[in-house]
Amino acid sequence: MKLYLIALIFVLLLICSVCVVAESMELTVKDLNTNDAISDAVCYVHVADKTTAVFPDCESVEFEYEEEDVTIEVIADNPKTPGIDYFGCSDLLAIDDVVYLTPTATIKGLVKDTLDNVVKNADLKFECSKACIDFPDLTDKFGSFSVNALGTGHCKIYANYKDAMGFVSLDLAKGDLKDVEIKLDKTVLDIPEKSSYMWFAVIAVAVFIAVVLLFKYRPRQRRTKQKEGKEKKKDKEVREERTEEKTSSKRSEDIMHTLNKKEKQIVEFLLSNNNQTHQAKIRHELSIPRTSLSRLIESLQQKKIISVQKEGKAVRIKLTDWFLGK
Fold it and tell me: CA 86, CA 74: separation in Å to the nearest integer?
């Protein structure tokens, strides 16, 4: 029986030796600048980055912590303001029953170049009041950055990427939430190294396709042009032959010498079109104004060189048999 009791006591002592005793602390939360108690905010208490306690009224803040816990962060946020109103951090061993919080604001920023391209991995520098939170050193992959709680007052933020620079100045009040945009003074064209091979492959494929299409369609275009050239040449020869045949008449040749330049153009055009065509075609092909063409046709008609025949709305012009020597 005695041995059983000794063993039980030993086990209890062993269990107690590894137990962590939780202690409680009650704090008064005050404004660092005014020394006034903060009462119009919700308090969030983070103990050693592992526990969070929420208090709807900062006037009554009581929480538990363990012996090995050494740090505490307290956020006081008024729901009526868009940003975080207060932030503070302290050593649990250094505080008594009061924790002082710094008035803070929240910013969200974006870095762009002169063409409005977002700039990722841009270097950042803050000349602002600090409230226990480290400022970011770089923009993220979307070109943005944020600071949840930084001190109030005048603030200047610089951004730099390669040889492009920019900055923004602003004044922050307690509880502010500011969206800022830093414009660099140059255009930033940067292709990530990860995708360099991909871009090279895309360009190579595009060049290959272009070369294939060039060699595929170029001979066809050349054959088409050659065919069109032969047809035009043949048509020209046929027209010349017809012209020669029609003008072989002695009367036609004599009459042609008496015509003015425009009249001669009309007669030659009729000869090359099987001795007849429509008035609209003559006007279009020879670029003769409508009024001038009417006078020329009337003159040729009076000289018995052409005859005019209406076909509905169209007018057919034809060389006379007398002119052709038939």
Answer: 8
Q: Any residues with CB less than 8 A from the CB of 51 and at least 6 apart, and which?
A: 63, 64, 65
pLDDT at 5: 47
Secondary structure E strands in 122-236: 123-127, 144-151, 153-161, 164-172, 177-183
State the distance between the two ends of the chain, measured CA to CA, in whole angstroms: 155
Q: 24: helix, coil or strand? A: strand
Q: Which amino acid is at 7?
A: A
Q: Count of residues for the chain?
A: 326
Q: Where are the domains of the chain?
A: 21-103, 104-183, 193-226, 244-324
**Model pTM score:** 0.51
Q: Name 105's Cβ contacts closer than 8 Å, sequence gap at least 6.
A: 83, 84, 149, 150, 151, 152, 172, 173, 174, 175, 176, 177, 178
The closest alpha carbon to 29, from 81, 95, 83, belongs to 95
Q: Whose CA is closest to 294, among 315, 275, 313?
A: 315
> In CATH terms, are 21-103 and 244-324 the same topology?
no
Task: Tell the residue number behind the tokens 């306690």, with chain if given.
Answer: 53
Residues 126-163 have pLDDT tens digits of: 999 988 888 999 999 999 999 998 999 999 999 999 99
The C-alpha atoms of residue 89 and residue 102 are separated, in whole angstroms, by 9
Tell which CATH architecture fits domain 244-324.
Answer: Orthogonal Bundle (1.10)
CA distances from 159 to 50, 116, 127, 177, 182 (A): 34, 15, 12, 20, 7
What's 248's DSSP letter? T
DSSP 19: -
CATH for 104-183 is: 2.60.40.1120
Q: Are 164 and 139 in contact (CB under 8 A)?
A: no
Q: What whole-number distance in Å separates Cα of residue 301 and Cα of residue 322?
A: 12
